[in-house]
Structures are given as structure tokens and as C-alpha cells.
Automatic annotation (TrEMBL):
Official protein name in the record: Beta-xylanase
Annotated family: Belongs to the glycosyl hydrolase 10 (cellulase F) family.
Taxonomic superkingdom: Eukaryota
Section of the entire sequence shown: 426 to 722 of 722
Domain GH10, residue spans: 18-295
Length: 297
């Protein structure tokens, strides 16, 4: 089976996964990517700390590798991410002056989004900027600029790559009644109304068993604030089939859910490896994979 082809055929939505030079140098990984997944997100290579580890010194090799791999193999490229408080170099976290922070965000985005302009279906412009209470959380960006960093980042991304869909991406958006989900949905609606160029909300969807049931209502709520939504980093502890089926059904039920990205090909490569959250173990499909295939067939 090819779950991307089945998903595209049923609903025109992509089913993707992550990659970078390390995992893509493993032929068991590339065999699965090439047979089952139609979209790629760089797991780490486009993050600030990887791509601009020192101010104005760029390290493009890893990100170029992934972007070229996507192009050569006909995969949709989702670019991840431009502004995040993790995997952030110390020279950025040390900035306390708002004007210097503004210029630093703008030049980072101009360089990185500019380099891949026209190649990224979407960019995660902001990653994990909300707290569990549904408000913007303390970070080097928020601490220096307050809420204004949101507009600064999206405006810079729009200027650098007018073709990419611009996303705000976050985790724990898996229930429609959770304060983080409701708070983020309300804020994004307000920002869109104020003219900030936000096209999409990405729901990372790192789940534990049993959480799949809330995803459809949550996605519908998020979809009310923007023109599209996506499931951007799916993995589920224990890879419970019912939860995987719930998540795929949730994206099918929301017209403007454009696709699903799984965060890891094989359990052995997952950042949550100990919870066995992916669709493959020992590079063999698990029950959850077969459940998705029967759902989409
Ligand atoms: C993770 C990667 O999978 C790991 O390899 C890395 O060590 C840490 O970051 N939210 C995100 C992703 O937006 O970028 C993170 O990826 C997982 C949580």
C-alpha cells in the first residue's frame, strides 16, 4: 500500500513524514518514504541552531540536502521552523534590546525563508509560542518584544517567501476544551483580522493513547480561525490503532485540513523512541499502519 496515494485519492490531502541527511542515508528509511509518504519536513536541519549557529554565519548543507531530496523525489516540502525558543543559539537568547531582536529575527527570516523561497509548500513561522494557559509564553522573543514579535516574524516571512503558506505551529492542541487550544484559536483569529499574514495553524499532535478522540473537535475549532490547518508532527505513544484512525478521520472530516505529517519513520528513529509511537517497528508496518490503509481504501 501507499498511504499517501490513498489519502490523496480519497481527499487530496498529503501524508508525509520527516527526514534529514542522517535518516535519509539509511536505505530502509528511504524505501518506506518513497513507497508511503508524499511530503517531507526537515526534522532538525532548518532550525535556527542548525542553520544559523552564529550570527550571520549559515550552515546550509543539511537543509539543502533535505530540500533537494524532496525535489528529486517529488515530495511536498513543509519547512520547519523560523522562530522557536528551543534549538536556538545563545547569541539570540542573550539579546535584550528590542531593536536588535527585531533586526535579528528579520535578517534570519530573510536569509532562510529567502533561500528556499518557492520550494516550501508551507513554513512554520512560529513554533510553540503559547503556554498551556493559552497565552503567549515567556521566551527571548516575547521578553524583548511582547506580542509584537508575532507580526514582525510573519511580515518578514511573507516578504521573503510570498508563495509559502505561513503557519503557527504548536503542541497540546488536541482537545477543543483545553485552554491552550481555545486561547490560541482566539488569538490567531484576532491576528488574522488585524492583517497579520497567517494562513494556517499546525497542530503537532504528539499524543498519548486515548487522546485521538478529541482531535476532530479541536481541529474544527482551529480551522475556524485560519484558512487551513494541518497535523504537523503526529506520533502516538504505543501507536494505538484506534487513536491513529481517529486522527486520520479528524483530518478527513475537516475540509481545510490539508494533510498529516508523521514525526518519524521507524520507532528506532523517533524522538519518543521509548514509547514506540510510529507506524513502523524494525522497518515493518505495525497494526496502526494497516488500520490506516483499511480506512483509506
Ligand atoms: C525534535 C526532533 O525530533 C529531535 O531530533 C530534536 O532533538 C528535538 O526536536 N516539537 C517540534 C519538533 O516542533 O521540532 C521537535 O523535534 C519535537 C517537538
Amino acid at each position: 500500500a501507499n498511504i499517501n496515494a490513498l489519502f490523496v485519492k480519497k481527499s487530496k490531502k498529503y501524508f508525509g513524514n520527516i527526514g534529514d541527511q542522517g535518516t535519509l542515508s539509511n536505505s530502509q528509511t528511504t524505501a518506506i518514504i518513497n513507497s508511503d509518504f508524499g511530503q517531507l519536513t526537515p526534522e532538525n536541519s532548518m532550525k535556527w541552531g542548525s542553520i544559523e549557529p552564529e550570527n550571520n554565519t549559515f550552515s546550509w548543507a543539511g537543509a539543502d540536502y533535505l530540500a533537494n531530496y524532496a525535489k528529486t523525489n517529488g515530495k511536498v516540502l513543509r519547512c520547519h521552523n523560523l522562530v522557536w525558543h528551543n534549538q536556538l543559539p545563545a547569541y539570540v537568547s542573550a539579546i535584550t534590546d528590542p531593536e536588535i531582536m527585531t533586526a535579528t529575527i528579520q535578517s534570519h527570516i530573510a536569509a532562510v525563508a529567502g533561500r528556499y523561497a518557492g520550494q516550501c509548500y508551507a513554513w512554520d513561522v512560529l513554533n510553540e509560542v503559547f503556554g498551556e494557559d493559552g497565552k503567549l509564553e515567556a521566551s527571548p522573543f516575547y521578553n524583548t518584544l511582547g506580542e509584537s514579535f508575532v507580526k514582525i516574524a510573519f511580515d518578514a516571512a511573507k516578504k521573503a517567501d510570498p508563495y509559502a503558506k505561513l503557519y503557527i505551529n504548536d503542541f497540546n492542541l488536541d482537545s477543543a476544551t483545553y485552554p491552550k487550544t481555545t486561547g490560541l484559536a482566539a488569538k490567531v483569529k484576532e491576528w488574522v483580522a488585524a492583517g497579520i499574514p497567517i494562513d494556517g495553524i499546525g497542530s503537532q499532535t504528539h499524543l498519548n493513547a486515548g487522546q485521538g478522540a478529541g482531535v476532530e473537535a479541536a481541529l474544527k475549532l482551529l480551522a475556524g480561525s485560519v484558512s487551513e490547518v494541518a497535523i504537523t508532527e503526529l506520533d502516538i505513544a504505543g501507536a494505538a490503532s484506534t487513536d491513529y484512525v481517529d486522527v486520520v478521520n479528524a483530518c478527513l472530516a475537516v475540509e481545510n485540513c490539508v494533510g498529516i505529517t508523521e514525526w518519524g519513520v521507524d520507532d528506532s528513529q523517533s524522538w519518543r523512541s521509548s514509547s514506540s509511537p510510529t507506524l513502523f517497528s524494525g522497518f515493518k508496518p505495525k497494526a496502526a499502519y494497516n488500520a490506516i490503509v483499511s480506512l483509506l481504501q
